[in-house]
Amino acid sequence: MSKENFIKGAAILGIAGLLVKILGAIYRIPLTNLIGTEGIGYYQPAYNIYNLLLVVSLSGFPTAIAKIVSEKRALQNYEGAYQVYKVSLWGLFLIGLVSSLFILVFARNIVSFIGYPGSYYSMLALVPALFAVPLLSAYRGFFQGTQNMTPIAVSQIIEQMFRVAVGLYLAYAFVGRGLEEAAAGATFGASAGGVAALILIYVMFFFSRKSIKEEIKLSKNNRTEPVWDIIKKLLYIAVPITIGASIAPLMGNMDSFIVSNRLAAIGYTVKQYTDMFGELSGTAQTLINFPQVFSTAVAMSMVPAITEAFTKKQITKLNITANAGVKMSLIIGLPCGMGLLLLAEPIIALLYPSLGPETHASSGALLEILAISVIFLTVVQAFTAILQSINKQFHPVKNLAIGLVVKVILSYLLIGIPSINIRGAAISTMIAYLAVAILNWFDINNTKVRINFVQITARPLLSTAVMSVATAVSFRVFEGLLSSRNLATLSAIAVAGVVYVVCLFLTGAITKEDLELIPKGEKLQRFVRK
Question: How far is CA 132 from CA 52, 135, 140, in A?
Fold first, then answer.
């Protein structure tokens, strides 16, 4: 593949990933307005289990397939690369078949065990997705290994578009029958998206088979190997990635289970704690996902730049790049966290007008707590990228596992206190991310990387402080001047954005090194080829 085509493909994949994340984050807003927090309380537990089951097929295996396929193609062993695809496809077919049949048979037992019997239909609606999406990941891994990013990007967009369109349509169609049915319609969007993307990517693969067979025919270096050897290679790469990726879905599932059991223990009914869990996962949690769209992009851009410096043993450049990456994450996380904290209830009221003042207040209280976790989460993402880039990829996994333990213990203790109740889940999330950030920082300090926190935080903190004052004052002023509270909220957000950007430039918070963090096409190409 030529340099120009590679860069074009990478750009398409990057844009597609951003669109998918934005669509996913926005999707919850109309859905929550449509089915309410109680409906989200039926939707989210089923979706948490679905995400956990999909981690196996969507996290480690596509990366493993892409890596091995790429290595074999580099040696012009095109038949060996195609063999990896075939073995992977059959393996993921079995994973999809087992997981979908497992949910089909045991759905009612699972939702009863975690305390949300109303999620039964939502669980059943995800069965087709559990079968289709693993197969989809096999094709995506193969195309990534051939450096053909276009089918991956197009399938991602189609998957998310179908998920949003079908999910919202069915939720609207079924809401008159009941919230359990409407939530099931929303979750079926994931199945529709998975099946649509699978059909599309298979068609694209079908039309590329001629060129694949031509490559195999012309190559003189073709060689196959025992199937078990391929499986071992795939598992060696996929398992560590899968373990790390399982932590976040596990947190979501533990939240579902602990919230239902602890709130029931202090006297809440099923309907009450389902509604409260919907407030946590459908309103507050949704909003803290928005900043991650951008902080994740910063973390991803750090990896090739830091890896290059680490590989070449350029310690000065390594430290400059690592510090710039952490600072850029803070430049995103600090204002987002403080903005959501200061305007928590007005933002909830703006985005979820159908929920009513009482829910706006309770959801706002949850968002105030989770807003602080945005700052810690963006730092965790940056620290994780640094550790992965310097061959310390197991350290973030270990630290996330410790964070999960902290989360579980604190959730169990705090949610059971009547005066704290559901807020205990938000507090435990915030403290868990803080713990992970601190542990990652200690691990980084045991390497050659040195993070100068005073230097990288001073100017972003000053800019955020000025922005926070401007946000609080402007909201009060606009609230008194304007007839619409929602318009006052939007005006305050606009003022906050302008003030923050101006402060960043006046304080010199962003330097030339920060802007050079994003790798140019030539550097990115060299990194991927390695």
Answer: 15, 5, 13
